[in-house]
Amino acid sequence: MQKVVLKVKKMHCASCAVLIDKLLIKQPGVVSVKTSYGSEKAAIEFDETKISLETIDGFINKLGYDLVRPDEQGFNVEDEEKKEALHILEAKRRVVAAFVLAAPIIIYYMLIHMFNVTHVHEFFDFLNLKQPFLTGSGFLAYGSYVVNYLFWIIAQPIKLIVGQFVDVANPPFDIDLNYFYWILSTPIQFIIAWPFYKNSFTSIRVGSANMDVLVALGTSAAYFYSAIGFLWFNIDHPFWESSAALLFFILLGRYFEAVAKGRASAAIKELLKLEAKEAHVVRDGKEVTIPLDQLVVGDTIIVRPGEKIPVDGEIVEGKTHIDEKVVTGESFPVSRTVGDQVIGATINQEGLIRFKAAKVGKDTLLYQIIAMVEEAQASKAAIQDLVDKISEYFVPTVVVLSVLTFVGWYFFAALPFRAGLMKMIAVLVISCPCAMGLATPTALIVGIGRAAKFGIILKGGEALEKAYKVTAIAFDKTGTLTIGRPVVTDFMALNIDEKEALKLVATVERGSEHPLARAVIEKGKSVFGELGEVKDFRAISGAGIEGSVDGTMVMVGNEVLMKNSGIQVDQYLNDFKKLQEQAKTVVFAARKGSPSNSSGQSPQGGDWQPIAIVAMADTLKPFAKEAIVELRKMGKKIVMITGDNPTTAAAIAREVGIDRVLAQVLPEQKENVIKKLQEEGESVAMVGDGINDSPALAQADVGIAIGSGTDVAIETGEIILVKDDLRDVVTAIQLSGKTIKKVWQNLFWAFFYNVVAIPIAAGAHLVFTQTSLGIPSPWVVSIMQNWGGLGQIFFNFSQATLRPEIAGFAMAFSSVSVVTNSLLLRRYVPPIERGEDITAPIKPKEPTAPASEVVTPTPAPAPQI
Amino acid sequence: MNKYFLILGAVILIVVGGGIYRKFILSESSRPYESGKTVYYTVIAERDKWIFSPEEIVVERGDKVVMEVINEDDYDHGIAIDAFGVSQRMPANATITVEFIATQEGEFPYYCSVPCGEGIVDGKKRTHFDMISKIKVKPAAATPTLSPNTNN
Predict the structure, then answer these.
(1) Can you give B76-116 as a three-state secondary structure string?
(2) Structural domain of B26
(3) Per-residue pLDDT tens over the stretch B8-64
(4) For residue B103, which residues of chain A lie inside 8 Å, CB to CB?
(5) CATH code, B133
(6) ipTM of the predicted structure?
(7) Which of A233, A522, A527, A697 is packed most tightly, with the most Cβ within 10 A?
(8) B21 with A410: Cβ contact below 8 A
(9) Which chain A residues have a beta carbon less than 8 Å from that of B105?
């Protein structure tokens, strides 16, 4: 049994993935297939004794797609990017072309229908339009006045140009405007909108009736009815605008989507970038620099300070601190010496080391993470577009209704064939809502734009469509809930002015490169601005430092160092231990001599005396707590996942109010934790920042990356919090809910007019408004007689089937209501932006709920939660 | 099961059902009837009046109706009779011919199907929506074989 995740090229719609899944699984030997259209990947599990990968590839080729086998893997980041850019460019070109061609049709017909404008369908008559005058009052009169004026303005320059060749006032021939519309709409229908036909064909093969099918069906009906009707039957009302407007709006929607869509491949690209490009290897006793792919297991590799460690291995010589944050999430650089493991892509901070390569190429931890991200992305079920979901039922309904209409008119009412056919076509034409293609993209675009205003970057609409459904949120600790580097949390001066103590300690720390030292320096700088010079600096290995500041000897170190130096700290040990229990790194500071001593006494003289206790820890980010409180109020389960030790984890959890903690989770286990939560039926959001979080971010239903995090996390996440403010998680979820509500409302408005218009197009209402064919029902007659002018209008409409006004009205108003409704979303302001104290209504349960349940998983199995 | 087979099945069922209904169940009197007689009418969309005149045309069932439709206006109209599948454009200042066979009895509106504005006619406001007239199809005067009078 073999499982592979491979790239599939040439997929052009979501149905393609379904087609591959459906047909490939039927091949003997194929155990499971999961193809993802979004990430262009297929996860295939097959029995290699029964079927070879080549056979599978051949089969997929036959379907019209291309599987990229490992042996032909030409995975090229540039190609990917080029393809992506090309895709967007193509979508844009289609929109522009469709707009140029469709605009005259859309503007002409929509305006005429909306305002009941008198018009002519002849080119020279159009040019000879007189300057309009206002003929009445009321909405329609003003509307048609404005429209006529617009037409007149458009006509003048054309008249001038055409006048150069033809006598416009007495044209020698007639040109029906419909010829123009026919010429304009034909390329839209068959060239620009060709993908709809292509996708429909695939959809029909897999038995799905998605939006593409609905679009192809509706616009084809409109186009062919118009073209054939105009060219041969002098029909009163071609539906050019129905096909042109519909296609333009949908192409526009698709373009929006393409622009907003995140690039799934980018995550991988970032991962690949992390890799060191070359390694310094000792070969034949000499140091040579070679590309990474030439490394073999057992090579001795030299890494200098500041360089990336190329592959995984074991140190054979040297001692250093390694920043492993990118991979493990550990906030402090860890000390590594002979015999310790090193991980590729981490950064060697101080010393020069030599290590023996243990894993190279695809076996390294980094590649394992890449593989995990790839698999998670491939197996992620794409959510089906709401419009597609509706179409699945709508298309069959419409087809059956249209046939019913024909049968009703032709067979049952026994009317001429032509009457039945016309009604049937009318049903098909009116069934495809013009605004349907805009419903989702406009709401998403406004939602995404709104989110961006608050510092939340959403990669495509999918994140927005899923975020509100989230029931559980998993937080990474380091760098996500916490700042990710140590800061001074407590500074306790002992028998000395606090400022002076801080000045001494911060200044002496300037000599050190240790990350903890930086915390103290920063604290000092924040108080004093500039710090003085340190002399005679000495690091006491593993214990502390000492140096002279303005003639005063200062020593900073742990309690052992103090005791070894004979400094009495026993009376402060209580405070010291208390801070340590809070999972903080605590040190003592002591001094010898006094700078203010001007009596000529040697500064070296005197006894050591303790001056301060300094506690440092990786602390919570501002507003982390508020965010958690608010999320809990929303009923979300909160889980904290960390690679850190249980004590630190518990301390942070207690502080922030999280009661489900998973500590010491290995990078590759984070993903399992998410899977586990998903198996429990939760819809999971993962909030993280590190490379080690990437597989979990990809696995989660919604991956939320912190803006200050690593590039990989940012590329893998679907939502990025730029401001680094965890309250934006709340905003993102709330905004997602609002947006989806808008999408539903939009779809309602898009379909509503058309659904109402379908029975009218079919003439179904005649069953109620007429007693027998052509004889109005008594109730309709009574309304006509009693309701005055309104009654007459009702009567007229009730006795006729779909009038072009109704169709035009449905189209124009559904589009307008959809766009307006989407724009209303711009008024949304998240609670935190409104300045409301979102934590106010609820009292934190801290006093009663500190009983954190900390689980420390044993290394081997997935953590239990 | 492919959804499209279901759709196809439903469509076939509906069409066959309709065919059976028309062939066997539809009453003799309801069947489309053609007398072979042709009647001629002239219908005028009067200039700026938003009216089809005459407002009522009476024909006998089975008549082939040939309507000469004149548009006196400088803008387009249309003429539509739902029941007989008529929907024709009437270009400005032009005359068209509409033909259909009045196979069924009843009163059928024929209306303007192209937006054509509004205005004041004799002190009353008339609009595109008022532009409706009626075709009354009376029962056939006699049995088809006994109706020799053809064109008028």
Answers:
(1) CEEEEEHHHCEEEEECCCCEEEEEEECCCCEEEEEECCCCC
(2) 1-31
(3) 999 999 999 999 988 888 887 778 888 888 999 999 998 888 899 888 999 998 899
(4) 414-416
(5) 2.60.40.420
(6) 0.87
(7) A697
(8) no
(9) 773-774
